[in-house]
Amino acid sequence: MFGGLRIGYALLLPLAVLAMGSAQAATVLFEEDFNGNALDTQWGSQPGTWNSNSTVVNANSKWVLANWTDAGFKDVVWQRGHATLSDGKLNINLNKAGDGNAPCPNGCSDKRYASAQLITRERFGNNTRVEVRMKTAEGQQGGGGLISSTFRYLDSPHDEMDIEFLWKSDGKIHVGYFADGQSRHENIDLGFNASEGFHTYAFETVGPMLRWYVDGQNVQEMTAPKTLEAGQVRLDLWTPKAGTGVANWAGTFTGDHTTAQYDWIKISAVPLPSAIWLFGGVLGMWAAGRRVLSGGLRPVTQAG
What we know:
The protein folds into two domains: about 1-25 and about 280-304, no CATH class; about 25-35 and about 85-100 and about 120-270, Jelly Rolls, CATH 2.60.120. About 15% of the residues lie in helices and about 40% in strands. It contains three helices and 20 strands. It has helices spanning about 10-20, 245-250, 275-295, and strands at about 5, 30, 40-45, 65, 75-80, 85, 90-95, 115, 115-120, 130-135, 145-155, 160-165, 170-180, 180-190, 200-205, 210-215, 215-225, 230-240, 255-270, 300. A hairpin with a 2-residue loop joins β16 (about 210-215) and β17.
């Protein structure tokens, strides 16, 4: 019935070799499971500097915990007391200024809320994958305007790759990049409410190719105008300031407090095919093809 359908055994082994070469184990560059009693951090007074008046937990710490007022369009001040650990989770707590649960210990400037931002001390560049398991902040009582973020960021030049959750766009993940003065962003339907349970989200860079994943499934790919330069990975929760363009996009939170939770974060090198395996596989396919064509190997014939 299927006479004439022939597959050379000799072609299968090189293909398997190629598969082996592309399935190397990823090298873990950074990992945090938040199971300790305290964050391995150093306090920062402003981007790029350290506060000499505060306690240095570890000069070679994993994290910098922001302790400054951020951009004008963000209606939060970063306060280190708003990042806590409990039950093996990182809690990023956004609280209204003067809220009895967690008032700003050093004042909130002209911001309505205090929150937390964690920043990796190290920078991570090309061919890396950032993966987190998290539950986003719930904003139902505040009418929207919450942004739970995991992103890689470099200030100058402004290179950035984002995963953001806008409560205004419940059931969607907002992904995108900034690079070389250009940007692109997309909203992706999740099919679930990200504030109701933990899910795994990831993004990776391979040259200018950018990819995003939800629970292991590739949901978006983009090609940036260049390979993004290395940047620090940041985790935070914030709300835009009313009257700004960002508030028109994301809304404005009016509740008293809310929390985003992280179960773990892992940053790995993206596994690439080994040059040796790849060369060997291609050479093997070429040699096997010559032998089959010359009759040196018997091809398999399916019974018909």
